[in-house]
Design brief:
It contains one helix and ten strands. By secondary structure, the chain is mainly beta. A hairpin with a 2-residue loop joins strand 9 and strand 10.
C-alpha cells in the first residue's frame, strides 16, 4: 500500500542533483496566514502536478479538485485555503515506480488561486523532497519570484537509468512552460479566465 506522511518539517535549501535515485517524492507547498487586521482577501495557493507523455502531451493533471490520478500513483492531500498549517499546507505524493509507462515527464506547478503575486504572500515557499527520508532536493522561496502568480517549480523526467529531476526555480515565471502555456494550464484547471492570473 502506498502510505503517506502529511507532516514534513521544512529544512534548509538543498538543490537538485541529476544523479539522485528517485523513487517516491513529495512536493510540499506552504504559506503563512494573514496577519491580524490584514487583507479581507487572504492568499490561497494551489499545488498542481501534470503528467506528460514523450510527445509532451498532457495525460493527467492532479490538483485540489482532482486529488489523484487514475491508478493512484499521484496523490494530492487536498485543498488548503488559509495557510494555517505549521508545515506544508498542500502536498503531492508521487510514487514514480507505479506511474503508467506512458508517463515521460512530471511537472510540478504552484498557482495563486486569487491572482495575488507571490511577492505579496507571506511565507510562500515550496519544496521537492524524498518521501521516505524527507531529504529535500529543491526548496524555493516563492516570494522571490516577484509579480509571478504561477510557476513551474521542477520537472522530473524518465531516463534509461531512472528518473531525473531538474529545478526550474530560476527560469522566470514559467520555467518548463512558456508563460502563455503556464497561464493556459492554470486557467484550464480553475475554469477561469487566464487574464485573472496574468
Amino acid at each position: 500500500m502506498m502510505g503517506i506522511n502529511d507532516h514534513a518539517n521544512p529544512r534548509d535549501h538543498v538543490y537538485a542533483d541529476a544523479a539522485l535515485d528517485l523513487k517516491e517524492i513529495v512536493m510540499g507547498l506552504h504559506w503563512d496566514p494573514p496577519q491580524e487586521g490584514g487583507s479581507a482577501n487572504p492568499a490561497n495557493l494551489d499545488a498542481l502536478c501534470v503528467l506528460y507523455d514523450g510527445q509532451r502531451r498532457a495525460l493527467e493533471i492532479i490538483h485540489p479538485g482532482r486529488p489523484r490520478n487514475a491508478n493512484g500513483s499521484v496523490i494530492h492531500t487536498g485543498d488548503a485555503r488559509t495557510g494555517a498549517s505549521e508545515w506544508d499546507d498542500e502536498r503531492i505524493f508521487v510514487f514514480l515506480e507505479a506511474l503508467p509507462a506512458a508517463v515521460s515527464t512530471i511537472a510540478f506547478v504552484v498557482a495563486s488561486a486569487t491572482g495575488r503575486a507571490f511577492s505579496g504572500i507571506r511565507g510562500a515557499s515550496c519544496h521537492i523532497s524524498d518521501r521516505v527520508s524527507e531529504r529535500e532536493w529543491i526548496r524555493l522561496d516563492l516570494t522571490a519570484l516577484g509579480q509571478c502568480t504561477a510557476h513551474c517549480v521542477a520537472t522530473v523526467h524518465r531516463s534509461p537509468t531512472g528518473w531525473k529531476i531538474s529545478s526550474d526555480a530560476h527560469a522566470g515565471c514559467g520555467g518548463f512552460f512558456s508563460e502563455p502555456e503556464l497561464l493556459s494550464l492554470v486557467a484550464s484547471v480553475r475554469g477561469r479566465d487566464a487574464g485573472l492570473l496574468s
